[in-house]
Amino acid sequence: MSAFDSEYAIVALQLVVYLISFACLMWSVQNVFASYAVTLLLGLGIGLNIYMQAYHTVILTESLAFSLCNLLIAMLIKGWLARGILRASGVGLVAGLMLALRPALASYVVILLVAVPLFNAGALSKTIRNLVAYLMSVMVVLSLESAIYFSHHSERQSLTSLTLLGKGAILTTYADFDYPNLTAHQQSWLKEIDRGLNPVQLWLESDDSFILKTNLRSNFEVFAQYQLVDMIAAEQNISPLSDEEFGRLGMAAVWANPPLYFKSSLQHLYGLWLVQEVSFLRLAYGQKLPLFENSQLNSALPGQQDGHAIFSAEAKSGIALLSYLVFPAFLSLGLVSLGLAAGFWGFVALRMLAGQLSSVSNEVLIIALLLLLGWGNLVLVAFTNIATPRYLMPNMPLFILACLLSLKLGLSAITENKGRIKFKADKN
Which helix (H) or strand (E) holds 298? Predict the structure, then answer.
């Protein structure tokens, strides 16, 4: 079998696995909530998301992560966290595999650990058994992954230094950036990094488009991770730092500027919901991308642009025209899910404080958990990584299902209240 045939077989296999997980999710939703409308709309919301489905056409860990996420949601709505140690172990196995495949999904493992007591309120011994079963399953998966990895590699590569360098570098684009205490050589490098990104800072301070600035901050944070050091080394006669030293430089910059780091992370959190925003801004508002004198800085800009031309060939394409629908749809889902999260978390928290958690319906707990898993992961990504749709997509089924179940719950409450009012009127 040729390499091409092998790759095709792997892609076909991961697509089959995803379709099986998708069918399992649809069956579980219909079986638990008995609503064809919810099941149909969830299926359409996931199936028509071309940005999510595109990951299944190439060999990527995202495809398997999406499949595992579907299975995890199916397990949660079927109540596996409260149905004995075998099912709790199953949840732990899936969560552990998700962490092993995509470390950015680490928040799932922690949140599910907290969720076990919530779904077993009032049953201490059962809670402890399920917690132990869940944790043991996660540890088994991670131990196996580690053993397999080190059987083929002598050490595990880490991107921590690059991530910290990018975080520290992008903070220099804020006007109120404070220089940390560093060695003379590290200080020289930080000044060169600041100088290298100064054209970006000048543009960020002059442009009024918060959406576009959010997009470009992520782009230039990645640029700082992978290209900025080489650009500076080629332009300046300065000896390089080691990866560890660059990491410490970035960490020092973050520690010296916690308000700026928090501000930048919140901007990433908002930016995670921006899908096709550049095409939308070009088409709807004639937004122009900046044009820098340094060609390497221009390489970090999204897409290709001929000077300051508003419409490029990409902007006129059918995919770009979809931005009129895609951009507001994703942003609206983010705003709605955030509002729902605040409401459901507040309700559950008040019941917990009142010692009435066992009185909360399973449907409300599921909605609150889905929203916590989704937003918890996005917060983790925003503070440790950058804003890009690839980190949003695994969470999309969580947000869509939570919104649909909230709508179903609201409509049921309205119908029930109308029935009570009618009954009282008839009785009188």
Answer: helix 295-298
Quote the CA–CA distance of 316 and 329 in Å, as a whole number.
20
Question: 97 is written with which tokens?
Answer: 């595999």
Q: Please report which helix (H) or strand (E) contains residue 168, including its range.
A: helix 160-171
* Surface-to-core class of residue 409, CB atoms within 10 Å of its CB (0-12 exposed, 13-18 middle, 19+ buried): middle
The whole-number pLDDT of residue 149 equals 82
Q: Are 240 and 229 in contact (CB under 8 A)?
A: yes
Query: How confident is the model at residue 62, as a pLDDT?
Result: 83
Query: What's the CA gap between 362 and 352, in Å, rounded?
Result: 14
Give ∠ CA 261-265-271 in degrees, rounded to 5.
145
pLDDT in tens, 374-409: 999 999 999 999 888 889 999 999 999 999 999 999
Measured distance CA(23)–CA(44) in Å, rounded? 13
- Backbone conformation region of residue 355, classed left if phi is above 0, alpha if psi is from -120 to 50, else beta: left
CA atoms within 13 A on the CB side of 29: 28
Domain residue extents for the chain: 160-271+277-321
List the one residue out of 346, 369, 358 whose CA is nearest residue 77.
Answer: 369
